[in-house]
């Protein structure tokens, strides 16, 4: 992430030297959210089976929410004076979201595969909360919102598989 921190009008951090580190954490989260939204669309186009229509529609809702979360994360980076990179090359190079097989997938497999990936992204972000919070509580709050939303999505995916809430 390039810095635009050329102004005294940036939000103060406990340790201003951590601005780049917080920006780097936001970049990692941004890449995962963008990739998750792309993966969601891939699965949206690939789903087959008796529940395909419902899963298809649900995936559009999830993808929309992930794109909104990505925007919130990127805007937090810019607020801190760091320019995020959401280009496909950056996402491809930095995302840790496991790709899916290209081809038709049964509705239950789509829900299962997506649920695993959403859980993995939420867990990785949750692991960062303490270190980010030590540097910037506002950024930590943004990431808490992301984790809360992803964990809600985990639950919604889990109940589609007939698992207990």
UniProtKB/TrEMBL annotation:
<dbReference type="InterPro" id="IPR023188">
    <property type="entry name" value="DPS_DNA-bd_CS"/>
</dbReference>
<dbReference type="InterPro" id="IPR008331">
    <property type="entry name" value="Ferritin_DPS_dom"/>
</dbReference>
<dbReference type="Pfam" id="PF00210">
    <property type="entry name" value="Ferritin"/>
</dbReference>
<comment type="similarity">
    <text>Belongs to the Dps family.</text>
</comment>
<dbReference type="InterPro" id="IPR002177">
    <property type="entry name" value="DPS_DNA-bd"/>
</dbReference>
<feature type="domain" description="Ferritin/DPS">
    <location>
        <begin position="25"/>
        <end position="162"/>
    </location>
</feature>
<dbReference type="InterPro" id="IPR009078">
    <property type="entry name" value="Ferritin-like_SF"/>
</dbReference>
<dbReference type="InterPro" id="IPR012347">
    <property type="entry name" value="Ferritin-like"/>
</dbReference>
<protein>
    <submittedName>
        <fullName>DNA starvation/stationary phase protection protein</fullName>
    </submittedName>
</protein>
């Amino acid at each position: 992430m390039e810095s635009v921190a050329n102004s005294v009008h940036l939000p103060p951090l406990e340790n201003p030297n951590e601005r780049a580190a917080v920006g780097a954490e936001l970049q990692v989260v941004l890449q995962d959210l963008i990739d998750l939204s792309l993966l969601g669309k891939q699965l949206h186009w690939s789903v087959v089976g008796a529940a395909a229509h419902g899963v298809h529609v649900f995936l559009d809702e999830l993808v929309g929410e992930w794109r909104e979360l990505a925007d919130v994360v990127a805007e937090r980076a810019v607020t801190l004076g760091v320019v995020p990179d959401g280009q496909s090359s950056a996402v491809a190079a930095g995302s840790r979201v496991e790709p899916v097989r290209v081809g038709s997938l049964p509705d239950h497999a789509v829900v299962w595969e997506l649920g695993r990936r959403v859980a993995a992204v939420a867990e990785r972000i949750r692991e960062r909360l303490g270190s980010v919070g030590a540097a910037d509580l506002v950024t930590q709050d943004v990431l808490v919102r992301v984790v809360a939303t992803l964990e809600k999505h985990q639950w919604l995916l889990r109940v589609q598989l007939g698992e207990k809430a």
